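Subject: mismatched residue count in predicted assembly?

I count 286 residues in my input, but I want to confirm that the predicted structure covers every chain. Input:
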Amino acid sequence: MLSKTCEYAIRALLFIAQKTKDGSKTGIKEIAKGIDSPEHFIAKILQDLGRKGFVLSLKGPTGGFYHDKKSLNRSLAEIVKEVDGDKLFTGCGLGLKQCSESRPCPIHHEFKKIREDMQEMLQKTSLGDLSEGLFNRLTYLKR
Amino acid sequence: MLSKTCEYAIRALLFIAQKTKDGSKTGIKEIAKGIDSPEHFIAKILQDLGRKGFVLSLKGPTGGFYHDKKSLNRSLAEIVKEVDGDKLFTGCGLGLKQCSESRPCPIHHEFKKIREDMQEMLQKTSLGDLSEGLFNRLTYLKR
DNA sequence: TTAATAAAAGACTTTTTTATCTTTTATTAA
DNA sequence: TTAATAAAAGATAAAAAAGTCTTTTATTAA
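Triage response: the counts match. Full output below for your records.
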């Protein structure tokens, strides 16, 4: 469904969001432990997400990753689209290049419905929204 | 969503189902053309599907791939599960190993709904069902 | 029974994804 | 201003997925 990269990305951003709510920044090592991901791999991913405005960072002592209001309001859909592209939202279920209402693949209509549900769900969910559940220990980011 | 292998698998089986309805067998070359896939790759995939009972085949002149009643009634869900495993039906949206009702990831409940819709859709759809639309030129398998 | 046909099998290559390691740059506190 | 810290950047490696090529085996029609 989502690539490993995208799964790690969302988990890391949620971990950071949670820390931001605590009023603190967090470093690569803490993040990697907190979401159970390879350290260097998540570092790479976060560099990318930083460039794209999904997270902020500061080098040096007391540095680390954190969110501002704006980046906390980004939706999961935006993250997925940036990391994995929009194939999940618009691609054909059977991999056809030109699958459409007027030239549908055999599962076009049923599949479209599910794609749209997925997109809607991801669109209406922001990092900030989900960090609530984490903060209150109702949801988890590892294992 | 589905692997390339699985997309080709379903398309090839549908192509064969359609030919079966015509009362004829079909060969690798014709299949590869008919679904716009790499010839040797789909050959490999069909060998696999043959072992697993999703299609029948006969070597030699007048040979080729075809379906019987039973293989025509296999659901898309069965194919997906055999080719890609059941991660699509049971896996966590954020890649956690133990994501469950009692220890949910942040998107567990919303995601579960979508997974289940997907599974239901694929379960109630058989190769035979979809070959109708192809036969009547209402749906397509290439481009 | 033999030549032609078509799938089965297996080895191999390429591409993409995932992951790791090392060096550089920026920031801060002492 | 310097030593310590932490992210950024870049190079490399390993694993998985996708795709290709060659040889073998089974079947059939002549």
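Residues 27-29, 43-44, 46-47, 50, 57-65 of chain B lie near DNA strand C (CB under 10 Å from a C1'). Marking this ticket as 'not a bug'.
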